[in-house]
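Quick log. Single chain, no ligands specified.
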Amino acid sequence: MTESRDICFRTRDLTKVYQTGETEVFALRGVSIDIYDQEMMVLLGPSGSGKSTLLNILGGLDHASSGEVWFHGDVLTASDDTTLTQFRRDHVGFIFQFYNLIPSLTARENVALVTEIARDPMSAEEALALVGLEDRMDHFPSQLSGGQQQRVAVARAVAKRPGVLLCDEPTGALDSSTGVQVLEALEQVNKELGTTTIVITHNAGISDMSDRVVYLADGQVSHIEEHATRKPAKELSW
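-> predicted structure:
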């Protein structure tokens, strides 16, 4: 599956240490992984295993304490804040557990906020159609279900055509059937646009839709599982 693909991210000996008073807390302890273009990867592990810390460093939201991260051959860990801001704007879409939509704007207007500042965006209408919300474009967040609001957030993240989509517990606030609808949207984006997609979850049931599962424990990669075939998101339940 991955042998012929180009590497999107490469990390080597990635460490993140937080100082709490006189105590050092290790969030990451020497993480070394390759993440391939166009793949769907799940980061699986319990709370405190380092999943969000790793995602934030990959996305340029946080700095590693030591080690290196490359994005398509460029060393991200050597970049200053201005360069990282440019990297996030041009290459990365983020989806979080909570939707962070602006209540006074319609679904279309929430997505359009991103398309107005992106270099080569798709239209808000195209992005919403991609996640199956073409008939809800002019609804306000309060008129949408939680799953629909999260799909608006997916549309907003992908409207700028990012090469990478980083998703931190995107179904964490949703029930199983609603969460599956969101995962179907992520699956569609990965398939249609070829977007490298990394999904954080503590829910093992979601991992079957991925090309690979990276298991994290105590800030380290405990093992990596490859899937010869991906299970369609619509067949998942938990």
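The CA atoms of residues 76 and 83 lie 9 Å apart.
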